[in-house]
Structure formats: C-alpha cells, structure tokens
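Minutes, project check-in

Agenda point 3 was the complex the collaborators sent over. CS summarized: two entities, 458 residues total, and the question is how they sit relative to each other. Sequences were read into the notes so everyone works from the same version.
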Amino acid sequence: MAEMHRRPLRVLLAKLGMDTHTVGITVIAHALREAGMEVIFTGLKQTPEMVAAAAIQEDVDVVGISTLSAGHTRNLPKLARLLREAGAGDKLLLAGGVIPEEDRPLLEQAGVDRTFTMGSDTRDIVIYLNEWWAEQLVAEA
Amino acid sequence: MDVASELLTGTILAGARAIRWLDDGDPRGAQTLAAVFPHTGRAHIVGITGPPGAGKSTLVNALITEERRRGRRVGVIAIDPSSPFTGGAILGDRVRMGKHTLDPDVFIRSIGTRGQAGGLARSTHDACLILDAMAYDLILVETVGVGQDEIDVVALAHSTVIVGVPGLGDEIQAVKAGLMEAGDLFVINKADREGYEDTHRQFELMLHLRTEAKTHGGGESWSPPLLRAIATKDEGIADIVDAIDRHKEILQSTGEFGLRSAQREREQALTLACAEIMRGIKHSADPAILSAVENREMDPYRASQLLIKNWQEKAPV
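CS then shared the predicted structure for the full assembly.
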C-alpha cells in the first residue's frame, strides 16, 4: 500500500443555483482524487450560504464552483463575501465552466482567485492546485 | 484564534480546524486535544454501519432530523474510503444530508480512511472528542460500507446500529460474522423493497442464535431490537431514535456508559503508543538488516528482534 500523504489537499466541489449539469464536476472530482486530493461533494442546487457553511465545517483548503447556467456574477461574489465574513477568506476560491471572458475581472475583483473556462485540461487544474498547495506549505514552514 | 478555547464555546471554525490538525497529524492537534480532553465524556456516540448501498447516509440524514426535533445538537462524522494507491478520496456522504447544512446545531464532517482498515479513519476517535468538547449531545459516526469484520466502530461507539437492506442476495453472508455479534440495534432499511420478509427472517434467526447477549449492551437487560425503516420517506425513524434513547438509558443505569467510554480512551492510548513505536522502528530500521532479509541471509523473526533492539537503543526514552 502506498504511503499516504500526511496532509492531502482538501477540496470542496459544489454547484450553485438550479444548474444540474454534473459531467464537468464529476470529471474534475475524479481527476483530483487521482492526484491524491480529498474531494468533498455537497450535491446540487446549493446556495452560497450552504457552500460557505460546508466549506467551514469541512475545513477545506479550496472551494471549487462549477457553473454552467449563468448566475455566477451574483453567486460567486456572494460566496466570496460570506467566506470572508466567517473568517475563512484564506480558502482558495476557484470557478469553472461557462464563464464569459468579460465577467472575469468582476469575479476576480470580488475574490474569485482563478477561473477555468470550458475546455480547460484537468491536468492544468491539478498542476495549478499542486503548485498553490506547495506554496502554502512552504509559507507555513 | 485560540482554537482550544474557541471550540469549547462551540465555534465551528475552531472545531473544524482542530479536527483537520488531528487528521493531518499536525502537532497543534494533540495540543488542542490535551486542552479540551477534560471537557469530554458527555456525548452519546452512535455508530451507523452496514454493507455498501444499505442507505447509511440517507438514514443518518433522517436520524439528524428526528434528533433535532427532540432538541438535541448533533455532530456527524461520515467516513469514506481513501484510494490505497493515490491517497485521494471522494467524500460524498454530505450530498444526502444537505438540508442540515445551515442548521447551526448540526456539524457534519467528512473524513477519508487514509489507509486505515476496519471501517473507520485513524482520526475518528479524535474527531469524536472534539465534537464532544463542542458540547454536541449526540455524535453519529457513519462508517465506510463494511464487510464481515470491519467493526472498529463497535469499540468507538456507545451504541452501534447495524443497517441491512433487502435484495443483496447473500447479504447475510456479509453481515453475519462480525456485525451480527456486534450490533446493539438492527435496522432493515429500504423495507418497501422486494425481499424484505426474507431479510427480516434471516436477521431474526441470526439474532436468535446470538448467544453473546450476556456480554453486550448492558448485559441481559438489553436485547437488540430489529427495526424496519424507509429512510427516504422518514418511515420508522422515530422508532429507531426511541431505541437509541432506550439503549443509552440502560447503558447509563447499569454504569456501562462510563465503562465503554473509559475502555475507549484506554484503547486509544494503547493504539497511539503502538503507532508511535511502529513509526520509530520503521525510521530507525538498519538497511543492512532489511537487505539481509531480502537476500534470505536472515529470517524475518531474527531480523525483527534486531530491529527492535536497534530501535530501543536509539529511542530517546
């Protein structure tokens, strides 16, 4: 049996609003698991309040939101604000899916750390997360 | 943030962080645990176990609803398997418990097994202590889907609920060996499914044959009930909570409640000591001895004696 990572990255994956397209989020979940990460699934039709509460209970390092049916310009800034207000603003907030280029500046300004649009390679997401995690561990040491 | 004092006042952010530290083996976890340990020993720890697909998460979701109706604060530890190859995991038990996410008196935590066998994660006991210190009245521990002998939850919980389900065919094979001896309550979930009567008969027979009742569940005063449920429709849930309450009362009136808690902490101390020694031996292992075994110049028994001797000489104690 492989030696376990003493400290795997914990990632919460969720979908906000009425969007029920699950293929993307499922593919990401499996890719992250293969990369040795712990993925917490919260299910569909989540509100920003629910995602923030779950992220805090689970003490994840990363919150990843898959969005494929608009609403992201309202939902994501709200989620970022709720996390900050709850003292959990240090979590990395990612968004993926259908996000028009022109929405990106607004999202980034609101506290979304990175967006991955349609057609992103899951390997790039894994690399991005691993690099971010390595930075966090170095900063802590 | 002083995590220990914050979590004692029930701050979720602090409790969640303490569990993370303990799960990761971060030394701050043990420090926090030391500070809050005197405030533990109150919560009723209830294990929920059974084969994969029995509907454990859905049942837990329904039990939370009923316990909340009775005014209790509920902590949940939901365990899913980690990949033995990558260490990664998909922890999906929360999906079935979504409606409790915003209830401030419910704290749900998903934990991966991280290489631990037996149906629990290494940090399950620690997480229970943290939730106990946060003054949750009841802690539901949902194990991974288990087979015959993954019954570590029995040593952890005051009360263990075994969940079965009709239609798994030889399911009774998977359940019988360890689980039938271990459980304090038996629930057949998805009772509207075909095959319920057969499964019920099988469970009844196994329970009848169970002669160990004397040494379990508060002695002969407790005879494990067999209950039916349809968790998706909230059917049979109040009866299960009634039975869990009755079991707790009997444990308390016989002194077994404190006895089980005491035994659990003692075993945990021994488990932690063994794990530390194992780590020490692996770290101090002389590669020359190991390669002698690999080359068949030394037998494993002789090598193990030498490894222990070397470790003892190097150990700082």
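Noted in discussion: Residues 256-284 of chain B form the longest helix (29 residues).
Follow-up: revisit at the next meeting once the mutant set is ready.
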